[in-house]
Amino acid sequence: MTAQFRLVVVSAGTGDPSSTRLLADRLAQRVTALGTRKQLTVSVQTIELRELAAEIATALVSTHIGAKLQNAITTLHHADGIVASTPVYKAGASGLFTSFFQILDNDLLIAKPVALAATAGTARHALVVDDQMRGLFAYLRTIVVPTSLFAATEDWTDSALTKRIDRAALELVALMAAGFEKTVRDESWDRYQHEFGSAGGTELSIDLDSDLMRLAAGGSAN
Amino acid sequence: MQFGVFSVSDITRDPVSGETPSEAERIDAIVRIAEKTEEVGLDVFAIGEHHNPPFFSSAPTTLLAHIAAKTQRLIVSTATTLITTNDPVRIAEEYAMLQHLAKGRMDLMLGRGNTAPVYPWFGQDIRQSLPLALENYNLLHRLWREDVVDWEGKFRTPLQGFTSTPRPLDDVPPFVWHGSIRTPEIAEQAAYYGDGFFANNIFWPKEHYMRLIKFYRQRYAHYGHGTEKQAIVGLGGQAYIAKRSQDALNEFRPYFNEAPVYGHGPKMEDFMEMTPLSVGSPQEVIDKTLTFREHFGDYQRQMFLMDHAGLPLKTVLNQLDLLGEEVVPVLRKEIESRQDPQTAKPPTHAGRVRDKYGDQPARQPRPNANRGDNVTGGSPYQDTK
Biased composition, Polar residues: where in the chain (chain B) (predicted)? Predict the structure, then answer.
């Protein structure tokens, strides 16, 4: 029997097709192919942030999560692995990309394996992934694969990019297959901070045995 | 069930006329709105508490005492009274005084307040907001129930032999609603004391509040105050009404689009879909409001936000006519016929006096003679030792 994995591609590309999406798709295809070789069935779902742009902006300035955005959140909640890909604008990840991840609950992506990718018009942006994007995904407590993907214009004709895609794909498959997320969540979920209704609306346990709960029930503050 | 109107006390530019009312105009208007609330047959008027412009309501008990004096049946309340930055001793005193002047026609809703800069203005820290709220209420609860309080806590100066005066009217404390939009600890505290829980659901999707209200109901039953269905729940709502729904949409849209908090954000139709906002004909408002009890269970108080976002007084008064004449009478009838017979009656002073004393006369505390030192020794009142 083969194990089933859900890979979710998040792309902040704006063209159709965009090079950002193209890079993510090449990685996703390699993950699927490598999975098959290792008896893993990998299904791929894609979230195009471009289609959620208005709902992302609304969510940033209010508590209002639109229907399409909620679907994306639910999809990520069920992801076993994530490919997150963005164009670089003005020496940073697209605001659409960072805005989307800033909206998510802090605990939605805990321990999920992630491969990061970025595209740019010049190689001068090459360190954006490792220097800027990793921090965001560290905050979200994801596990980011060692190889980051970056493609400037000249990289698209360079076979070294393909080699890096293969590396990142294998790293992602290895993390997914190792069950890292499941182990962390099964054995350590309570050690992370949660709010009532966080983790995309699934974190509903209430600890009645806390200092604040004792204070709520007429006790005294420590 | 009680129906009422609550106001944030925002002074907002009218996006249609371009006019911003003065503080004086808006304060006069709110008194008129409260009077109108009674005239059209609604039960409750509640005002928020804020300590920064563009809001006017920094001293709710002063406003509410004035309104109580100008009305006969209306219950005056808050939405909310800040249990964090107010000294609980002052809340005990001010609201007991209001309770006397209003002859019991009052209650209050407690909230934490989410404007960070307000906290240090009153010597507090928003990072301590939750334990501060919980501890302050524990003290407030005692101040209204014990003639003499010795108390020591983390946040406030200790009290030795303190008596909060005046004692509550008929020695029955004001009814308290705990307002919360996301905090299980607040729901727990409401349940522990058998107080009301108010979910101001006007901004967020209903699923969120369904979970919190369910938790409150379970804990209310756990602490032995009654069954889950007997817990005391209040809900927020927001409406703009016109005879024809297209008129309602057209008239309200400019106000919605520029409203504080949610303006410049979601589309009005999306917001209507995901929150309790009703913009439409009386029947549409009725239909939507009737779904609330299906999601949250039968409840005791439905409040509507009617006067914010720069809506001019004339429009608000017209809205209240429609709400009071065409919406609420139908809601009362429909809800009465559908309501679970177990549902608790909405809280009133008369009902709470009856619950406490039955047919016996209520306690009327009379102080002992001034001995020059009323802060030490036994009871300050003649009927207790």
Answer: 371-385
Q: What is the pLDDT of residues B190-214, one digit of tens each?
A: 999 999 999 987 766 777 788 899 9
pLDDT in tens, A161-214: 999 999 999 999 999 999 999 999 999 999 999 988 899 988 888 989 999 999
Determine, yes or no, domain membership for B375. Answer: no
B135 with A215: CB under 8 angstroms? yes
| Residues of chain B contacting A61 with CB distance shorter than 8 Å | 264-265
Q: Which residues in chain A are closer than 8 Å to B141, comparing Cβ atoms?
A: 218
The domain A3-193 is placed in CATH, from the list 3.40.50.360, 3.40.640.10, 1.10.287.180, 1.10.10.10, at: 3.40.50.360
- pLDDT at position B379 is 81
Domain count, chain B: 1
All residues at 6 or more sequence positions from B151 whose CB lies less than 8 Å from its CB, including other chains: B139, B142, B158, B159, B162
Q: Could you list the residue range(s) of the whole structural domain that residue B146 is in?
A: 2-357
Nearest CA in chain A to B151: A220
The answer to whether residue B148 sits within a structural domain is yes
> Could you tell me the CATH number of the domain that includes residue B45?
3.20.20.30
Token code pair at residue A95: 């605001």
Q: What is the pLDDT of residues B85-124, one digit of tens each?
A: 999 999 999 999 999 999 999 999 999 998 899 999 999 9
Cis peptide before B21 (omega within 30 of 0): no
Domain boundaries, chain A: 3-193
Alpha-carbon torsion A209, A212, A216, A222, what sign? positive
Contact A196 B135 (CB under 8 A): no
